[in-house]
């Protein structure tokens, strides 16, 4: 009987997880720019210059299927919106930054404003429209 | 990160995950010793995926011979490393479950199988790869403990 109970619980957990992920994947949460330095990234932190107006920072790892799709989406956005740069960071090589920014999953995408402040973040693969909307918020702030 | 690597048909992965889900569900509902035999069989299938190649799994073979000829070539392929890592996570849960069942800790064994079933079912229905997501988390933990 225990086995049947485990099976039922497993099915319920899987159904809830699938629904939660469908809701959360790629969804950007906006955050007010803060003066706190931990929420601000310098070119030295990401190993590349910031974009003139905004920067998209993607955390990737080797064992990450949606990272490639995310890289392509960010590439499209960069070619569509002038003044925006995209930077990809190998999470395994930058574990200090991963911990500082509290990155739990790959891909995680941070949206930085012109000063490098984190104004939005999403985990899971975002769609192009989700990135464009998040950028719009960052650029109008 | 290098990009020159083996690729897999994502539909073969979903097919394999569905078959894995079915086997693990059978493990949960069949009596001993049938469930131990089924779980050992699934562990061997996981091990083939980890130590030989994803294509060595019998589910992959079944997909190539029975399913793929009917639905044609894939419109895209995926990096084989993430799902291969996930097979290793599945193997770990299967071995823990098997050891617990053989040692008489039936509930612990079945719960371990339940975790593997959740991961396989999510993979089959949504394409989400729990084992892949866990990779970074385990690296962070390893770094914290070190």
From TrEMBL, chain A:
Gene3D superfamilies: Glutaredoxin. Residues 26-140 form the Thioredoxin domain. Signal peptide: none annotated. It holds the Pfam family Thioredoxin. InterPro entries: Thioredoxin-like_sf, Thioredoxin_domain. It comes from Aeromicrobium flavum. SUPFAM superfamilies: Thioredoxin-like (SSF52833). This is Thioredoxin domain-containing protein.
UniProtKB/TrEMBL annotation, chain B:
Residues 8-140 form the DUF4395 domain. The chain crosses the membrane at residues 12-31, 37-63, 84-104, 110-136. The keyword GTP-binding does not apply. Keywords: Membrane, Transmembrane, Transmembrane helix. InterPro entries: DUF4395. It holds the Pfam family DUF4395. This is Membrane protein. It comes from Aeromicrobium flavum. The lineage of its organism: Bacteria, Bacillati, Actinomycetota, Actinomycetes, Propionibacteriales.
């Amino acid at each position: 009987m225990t086995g049947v109970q485990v099976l039922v619980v497993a099915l319920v957990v899987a159904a809830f997880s699938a629904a939660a992920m469908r809701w959360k994947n790629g969804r950007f949460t906006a955050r007010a720019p803060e003066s706190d330095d931990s929420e601000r990234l310098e070119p030295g932190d990401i190993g590349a210059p910031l974009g003139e107006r905004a920067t998209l920072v993607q955390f990737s790892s080797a064992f990450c299927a949606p990272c490639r799709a995310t890289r392509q989406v960010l590439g499209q956005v960069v070619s569509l919106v002038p003044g925006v740069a995209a930077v990809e960071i190998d999470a395994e090589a930058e574990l200090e930054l991963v911990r500082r920014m509290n990155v739990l999953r790959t891909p995680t995408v941070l949206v930085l404003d012109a000063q490098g402040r984190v104004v939005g973040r999403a985990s899971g693969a975002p769609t192009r429209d989700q990135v464009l909307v998040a950028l719009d918020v960052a650029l109008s702030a | 990160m290098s990009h020159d690597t083996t690729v897999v048909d994502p539909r073969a992965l979903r097919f394999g995950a569905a078959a894995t889900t079915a086997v693990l569900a059978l493990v949960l509902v069949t009596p001993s010793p049938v469930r131990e035999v089924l779980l050992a069989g699934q562990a061997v299938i996981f091990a083939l995926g980890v130590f030989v190649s994803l294509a060595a799994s019998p589910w992959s073979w079944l997909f190539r011979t029975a399913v793929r000829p009917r639905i044609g070539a894939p419109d895209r392929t995926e990096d084989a490393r993430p799902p291969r890592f996930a097979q290793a996570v599945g193997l770990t849960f299967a071995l823990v479950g098997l050891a617990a069942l053989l040692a008489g800790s039936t509930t612990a064994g079945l719960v371990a199988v339940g975790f593997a079933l959740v991961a396989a079912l999510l993979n089959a229905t949504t394409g989400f790869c729990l084992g892949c997501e866990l990779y970074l988390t385990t690296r962070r933990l390893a770094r914290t403990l070190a």
